[in-house]
Amino acid sequence: MTPPGRDREARPTTAAVPAAATGTATATAATATATATATATATATAVLVEDEDEAAAGRRRVARAALRFLAGTVAGLLIVLLLGAAPAQAAGYRYWSFWRWSDGGWVYQQQGPAVHVPADGAVEGWRFAVSPDDGRQATRPGPAGDFAALCAGTPAEAGRKRVAVVLDFGGPADAPARETPPEPRTACAVVPARAGSAEVLAVVAPPLRYDGNGLLCAIAGYPRTGCGEQLGGAARPTGTAAPSTGATGADPAGARAAGASPGAAGPALGVGAGLALVLAVAVGARWQSRRRR
């Protein structure tokens, strides 16, 4: 019991929380949630952008690697072509080239001797040498072709013609192994008016030797072996050589159409095909570059 005259102890009471304080707390919580959400979104976006940048960088690296590979392929093909074309351009063939004297000098004869019919008073020359496969670049005969001097001791005959011939057998550097080239010689042939150059040659410089394709291999028996072989490489297929003392229906100088020399046409075709391949690879490299951008 409480003693009389004393007040009773005060009991605690619960005061009501103002409404304004509750709203502020709710707003603060919402703000914090929104901030956290925004931060997470920004972080995710940054990670996504970084991943995309890495993927783009990877694609660029792949594209650069592909371009380097294609560029290396093109460079390799060019080197192969250059190395392959250089021996072809420098290749020499050991053969007899055919010439005619005109305006004080030797001019490469575009027609073969089986086709060409020299006029009365003409001068024809033959030179055995190691020459390029372009006949016009071949070595010319050394002696001059003065018809008056060459045929001075040969009288003219009615119904026949005189044709002077110069034979240059070349030097030691042109000679096949174990053969010695004869000294140059000249002659004046008296032949029928319709005789061709092959007939003229058969009269003044027997024996002649041809291969199975009609290529003239030897004049006056020189050289004893070989026929238009390529130096520094495999011999050009020419068939089986057979002795002959006269002209044949084929072109003895190897001029199948217009005086072409041994080996003409092959290297140009190979280089052309190689250049076409290089062009195709370059176009592919350009396409790959544009595709990777």
Description:
It is a single chain. The chain has 293 residues and is an alpha+beta fold. The protein has 4 helices and 9 strands, in the order αβββαββαββββα. Strands 1, 2, 3, 4, 5 and 8 form a 6-stranded mixed sheet that branches. Strands 7-6-9 form a 3-stranded antiparallel sheet, with no helix packed on it. The longest helix has 72 residues, at 19-90. The N and C termini lie far apart (97 Å).
Summarize the helices and strands and which ones pair or pack.
Elements: H1 19-90, E1 92-102, E2 105-108, E3 123-132, H2 147-150, E4 160-168, E5 185-192, H3 197-204, E6 208-210, E7 216-218, E8 230-231, E9 242-244, H4 266-292
Parallel strand pairs: 3-4
Antiparallel strand pairs: 1-2, 1-3, 1-8, 4-5, 6-7, 6-9
What's the Cα radius of gyration? 48 Å
Q: What's the average pLDDT?
A: 74
Count the beta strands.
Answer: 9
Provide the low-confidence segments as ranges: 85-89, 233-261, 263-269
Largest sheet: 6 strands, mixed
Structural class: alpha+beta
- Please state roughly what percent of the residues sit in beta strands, choosing from under 5%, 5-15%, 15-25%, 25-35%, 35-45% or over 45%: 15-25%
User: End-to-end distance, in Å?
Assistant: 97 Å
Number of helices: 4
Roughly how much helix do the residues carry, as a percent range?
25-40%
Order of helices and strands: HEEEHEEHEEEEH
Envelope shape: rod-shaped
